[in-house]
């Protein structure tokens, strides 16, 4: 069951149907079943780090109290309640990998990243809408073209249209970018025993990088680009001289092939990537977030004493103002809940960075944390789930023998 949940969560997380205002996905159903089957590990996982447990418990209590207050005031929507539940329950996904073989889980990660990257390439070539499957690659009853994938009113039936965010099966380029970032660093600590899985790992790394370029998410690509230097240094340092030479030789040849291909092939991909990551960034570095954050700060500074105390403890009335990233969470749930949520996200990073063999994963998760701060991806399944799954897999690695 755990393997099935992992595969569905990473490969087809939005497979399901829209029921009223909320989606009902296979990922949600399998998560509930898997947690019930692994209840004996929930407490063990939460108590694996006391700082995490205390922060998570307080976050749970404060958020529930905040939601109940807003419900009584009728200042909260069903969707906002659902998003809060996502934040509160998603960390428990790590429970499912607390005792299971990390090697088996990494095999699923490798296959999932290949499938996502390959599907994103197909979306780029044939069109996102043209190759979509209702109920499988996106939730039945939702409008995929209306998602945040960058169509900007373009022709959704054309081969490429104006879409600049290949969403894979995540319905959002940001979300799949976060998964591929964690998949990439997990692959770098994995040492499969068989030749077949070593080749699969290499292909997975390649498609993870391709997918990160195609996802169109600057909030994850830019942090990963900076952290990538540190990740590569640590990765190469942990290799033997022979492995290091082989890796550098492969990277050199791969770079040459890519450069030659784009030099002679008639493709618009380079121009489109340049427009997305350079031109658009120069024209609008914050994607209008600076104005949104400015409005949020003005709202906070203009609160009276009673309103400010409420904001500190349980957040502002959820109908008052909305915002992006962690600022939005802080406005909805309060300053205390915001700090506790950050602690819950930072503790896994510190734990992994403290282990030389696993710190590469910690660096990748830090890039995901930066993306969480900038956008609202943590509110949507399976982003926080994948975050804690990556943590649990990395923590559990080396504890069990390789399974072939």
What is the CA-based Rg, rounded?
A: 21 Å
Instruction: Write down the overall mean pLDDT.
Output: 85
What portion of the residues fall into strands of 2 or more residues?
A: under 5%
Strand order of the largest sheet: 1-2
**Unreliable parts:** 152-162
Number of strands: 2
Number of domains: 1
What is the general shape? globular
What structural category characterises the helix and strand content? mainly alpha
Q: Give a short account of the largest sheet.
A: 2 strands, antiparallel
- Calculate the terminal CA-CA distance, rounded to whole Å: 19 Å
Can you write the helix and strand succession as a string? HEEHHHHHHHHHHHHHHHH
Share of helix, binned = 55-70%
Number of helices: 17
Protein name: Polysaccharide polymerase
Keywords: Membrane, Transmembrane, Transmembrane helix
Organism: Lacticaseibacillus sharpeae JCM 1186 = DSM 20505
Transmembrane segments: 20-39, 51-69, 75-98, 175-193, 205-236, 248-265, 335-353, 360-381
């Amino acid at each position: 069951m755990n393997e099935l949940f992992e595969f569905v969560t990473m490969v087809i997380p939005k497979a399901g149907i829209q029921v009223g205002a909320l989606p009902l996905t296979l990922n949600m159903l399998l998560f509930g079943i898997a947690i019930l089957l692994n209840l004996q590990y929930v407490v063990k996982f939460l108590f694996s780090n006391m700082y995490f447990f205390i922060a998570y418990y307080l976050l749970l209590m404060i958020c529930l109290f905040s939601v109940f207050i807003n419900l009584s005031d009728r200042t909260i929507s069903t969707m906002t309640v659902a998003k809060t539940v996502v934040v509160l329950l998603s960390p428990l996904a790590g429970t499912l990998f607390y005792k299971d073989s990390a090697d088996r889980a990494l095999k699923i990660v490798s296959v999932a990243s290949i499938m996502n990257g390959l599907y994103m390439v197909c979306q780029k070539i044939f069109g996102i809408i043209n190759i979509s499957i209702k109920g499988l690659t996106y939730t039945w009853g939702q409008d995929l073209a209306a998602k945040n994938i960058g169509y900007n009113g373009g022709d959704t039936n054309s081969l490429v249209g104006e879409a600049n965010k290949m969403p894979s099966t995540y319905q959002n380029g940001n979300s799949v970018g976060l998964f591929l970032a964690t998949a990439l660093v997990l692959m770098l600590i994995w040492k499969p025993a068989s030749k077949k899985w070593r080749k699969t790992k290499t292909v997975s790394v390649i498609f993870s990088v391709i997918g990160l370029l195609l996802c169109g998410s600057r909030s994850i690509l830019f942090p990963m680009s900076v952290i990538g230097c540190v990740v590569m240094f640590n990765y190469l340092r942990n290799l033997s001289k022979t492995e290091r030479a082989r890796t550098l030789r492969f990277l050199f040849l791969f770079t040459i092939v890519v450069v030659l291909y784009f030099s002679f092939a008639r493709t618009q991909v380079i121009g489109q990537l340049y427009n997305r990551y350079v031109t658009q960034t120069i024209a609008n570095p914050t994607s209008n977030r600076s104005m949104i954050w400015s409005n949020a700060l003005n709202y906070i500074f203009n609160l009276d004493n009673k309103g400010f105390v409420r904001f500190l403890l349980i957040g502002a009335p959820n109908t008052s103002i909305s915002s992006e990233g962690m600022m939005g969470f802080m406005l909805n749930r309060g300053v205390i809940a915001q700090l506790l949520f950050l602690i819950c996200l930072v503790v896994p990073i510190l734990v992994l960075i403290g282990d030389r063999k696993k710190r590469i994963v910690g660096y990748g998760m830090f890039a995901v944390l930066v993306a969480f701060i900038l956008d609202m991806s943590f509110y949507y399944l399976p982003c926080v789930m994948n975050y804690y799954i990556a943590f649990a897999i990395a923590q559990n690695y080396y504890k069990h023998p390789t399974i072939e």
